[in-house]
Request: fold
Amino acid sequence: DIDGVGHKYHLELVLEDVLDRDATVNCTAEVLYHLGNQNIAPDVQFTLEGELKNTDDADNIFYNRIKSLEKELVAENIPDSHGNVSPEMEPIRLLAWVASGYVIWQNSTENTKFQLAQIKRVKQVKRSDEYLEFDYMILLHEMVSQEVIPWQMTVLWRPQHGVQVTQ
Amino acid sequence: DQVLHIVPETFQQVQHLQHLCSTLLLDLWKPLLPEDIWAGENLHIRVPAPLVQEVKDSLDQHMISYKVLIPDVQELVDQSMPRERSSHRQVPEGYVYTEYHPMEEIYQWMTQIQKSNSELVTQHYLGKTIENRTMYYLQISQPSDKTKKIIWMDCGIHAREWISPAFCQWFVKEILQNYQSDPKISRFLQNLDLYVLPVLNIDGYIYSWEKDRLWRKNRSPHMNGTCYGTDLNRNFNSSWGSIGVSYNCSSEIFCGSGPESEPETRAVAQLIERKKSDILCYLTIHSYGQYILTPYGSTTKPPSNSEELMHVAEKAAAALMGKHGTSYEVGSTALILYSNSGSSRDWAHMIGIPFSYTFELRDKGTHGFVLPSDQIQPTCEETM
Reply:
């Protein structure tokens, strides 16, 4: 408890690669939830004890595939009702995951627990520069209220340049 | 998905097709490899549904003519699966327990299960849903002189948690397939009766198949039909309406107009109330989160038999982990999850059923409610 400021949590956690369960990295973090104003995202400071895997190869394959599409990518319901995701859509889903992480962070309080539930719709937006742009309509599930919240997010990405989210 | 038949005419066309196949990772049925595509030779490619238009546009642009060999691959697959009605086996032939089934199939499955296992299984009427559908539970009971204690398990109180009814069906199948060969199960059945309700919230479940995959509540109309659904797991008479609920119909945790206001709740409550002196254990299956939850949600004050409840739950979690390494957290809802009132598990304990648990099955949020069907088997195996 930090009087007049908020609640600070010190965390020790283990990051696990979703695509390779044996790859783990230890991490320490400090999270500060601000008092009162629920519109400010919590402050997060973290240190990774180790390195994250290099994903250049997979990034480039995906990047080139999308760049060479003749028409902009459009897709719906990822995963489908039965939980299936086609291999072509797997990177699109991973991108949404990362981007939704940012959205979740920006909207989290001590009383929320968000998860990405589903991508309702994704539309690629044509760009003249090197970036890929995707317009996502996602559904976020909030555990405490059990609500499913639709959210629009625009995501920019290119290999080695990370993910940018504009809501 | 569609399968296209193409006969490339020129080398340029061959090149373009090879390019298309490798960048879009299309499924070549004939030939097997892009390098074996030749001008003048038959080419069969399976194109996933979301890419069909794109591929056709691309072919048009390059003046490559094509024919649709198979307009709907899924349809063909479905047709080729035999749907048999056998009453000579213990479990219905052709019923795939590693897939999610719509309500109509589950109704048929119940009838079938009773027919092929009539010495052990009886189907009982429980009540009607708000949309007037019939609720049935299955009683698995080995004939005997003594009155046996009962273990009750219900699944599918929340529509979107598809893995839950899948588990109830799996559970019944496992018991019936193995009660003669597995000494643990046969001893179980000598002393206990099992009551299984495969889908509690039938209307909601159907709605999640037909209209909204992430629907949770039942389908009772409110405010002149402008708003639908009560959260059945907030509707039981256990500190009803006190905490962790909403009084607003538009919320996912709307507790209804009063305790047991919903016919589904009443149907379950009436039966359990009637049999409560014989019920040893009440289990209610949900997803997701990987928890075994003990009472209470409405207060952090521990129940009277809290130590024993925890001990059993911890043993269960350990056994579960032993199967596939999946870890489950154990504890009271109010302490490890969130506060809520009106839950069926709390109510069962409050009326005197000593062992009352909520299971939250896989996963921890990666797929959440939309758990892929290839996880049905491992989830059910470990939970068993």
In short: Chain A touches chain B at residues 18, 64-65, 68-71, 73-76, 79-89, 115-118, 139, 141, 143-148 (CB under 8 Å). Chain A has a mean pLDDT of 91. Chain A is about 20% helix and 45% strand. The beta strands of chain A are 6-17, 20-34, 43-49, 74-78, 114-125, 132-142, 148-157, 163-166.
